[in-house]
Amino acid sequence: MTQNNAQDVCQTECVHETVVNTIKPKMHSTELLLDLSEIFKILGDHTRVRILHALSLSELCVCDMANLLNMSSSAISHQLRVLRAAKVVKFRKDGKNVFYSLDDHHIFSLINEGLAHVLE
Amino acid sequence: MTQNNAQDVCQTECVHETVVNTIKPKMHSTELLLDLSEIFKILGDHTRVRILHALSLSELCVCDMANLLNMSSSAISHQLRVLRAAKVVKFRKDGKNVFYSLDDHHIFSLINEGLAHVLE
DNA sequence: CTCACGTATGAACATATGTTCAAATGATAT
DNA sequence: ATATCATTTGAACATATGTTCATACGTGAG
To answer: What's the maximum distance between 2 C-alpha atoms anywhere in chain B?
Structure first.
C-alpha cells in the first residue's frame, strides 16, 4: 500500500495530538456542518442573493423581481424554486400573481451580517 | 422579435410600479451583491465549513486538519488555497509546518450565526 | 370555452467545482 | 549534499450548477 488515503496521511508523524484531542470532542457533527454548508450554498449565488436582498425590502411577485434584476421570469422562477425548497422564502397566490417574501429571520440576519462584512 | 429577453419580460403588464420604484433606489449595487454572494460561496462547501469550524476552535496545521476531517492533506491544502485567496484564513510557518487560523472576525460571526440557524 | 398572461417546469448546454493522483517545493536533520 | 517529511501544485476526472429556450400549467377575462 504505497498510495496515501485519508486514513494514513501523517497520522503518527506531525499531528499535534494535544490540540487535536482537545478539539475533536468540541466539534459539531459532520452532518450538522453539512447542513450549515447547504445554507451557505443557497446564499452563494449572485442571482439568489439579489432576490433575497430585494425580498428583504418588500414582498414581490416574480415579475417584479424579473424587472428589478433585469432577468427573465424563467430564470427568477428557477431560483425561487431553490429558495422555496430551502424554506428560505414563502409565497402567497393572488390571482395570476405569486407574491414571495422571506420566510426566515435567520436568513435576514445572515444577509445583513454578510453585507456588513462586504461594506467594511 | 418574438423571444423574450431580460428587457421585455412583463415590464408593462404586471409590474407593481409603486413597490418596484420604492425598492429600486434602496437596493445595494449589483457589484456589492456579487461580492456578498462570493463570500457565501466560500462558506458553501462541506469541507471548507468543517475546516473553518475547526479553526474557530484553534490554530491548526494542515496535517491536524487532515486528521480531524479524515481527509488527505492534498484535499485540505486545495481548500485552504481557496480560503487564503478569500482572506478568510491567515497562516504562519514554523519549520515544516504551516499553521492556519481565522483571519476575519466576520467569518466567525457568519459561521456562528449560521450554526444558530441550523441548530434551531 | 377560449384566450391571454403570469408562473412553473424540463431538457440541453456551457461552465464551475471538488477530489484524487502524481509530482514538485521547501525545510530540517543527518 | 542527501534523505525525509509537511505542504503545495497541476492535471484529470466526475459531478454539480445556472441560464436559456421551449413548453406546460393555472387563473381570470371576455
So the answer is: 67
